[in-house]
Amino acid sequence: MTDDADxxxxxxATVNDAVAEAAEAIRHGQLAVYPTETVYGxxxxxxxxxxxxxxxxxxxxxxxxxxxxxxx
Length: 72
Hints:
The protein is α+β, with helices and mostly antiparallel strands. It has a domain at about 10-60. About 40% of the residues lie in helices and about 10% in strands. The protein contains two helices and two strands, in the order αββα. The protein has helices at about 10-25, 50-60, and strands at about 30-35, 40-45. It has a two-stranded antiparallel sheet with strand order 1-2. A hairpin with a 4-residue loop joins β1 (about 30-35) and β2 (about 40-45). The protein is elongated and about 50 Å long.
């Protein structure tokens, strides 16, 4: 890994780019997949009803079953 002019490594730059891309997708009502310690999560804007519906549809989950909410 090499340091870029701003002090970030190539790996950090790749992660930063991926996070920015996921955030942009979520801002536009799309879904984003993200890793946790044990599983991958499916992220969306919890205040966007259409995005929440996309989560249920993507997971083929009954609307009566809850989904988790992660708050940074």
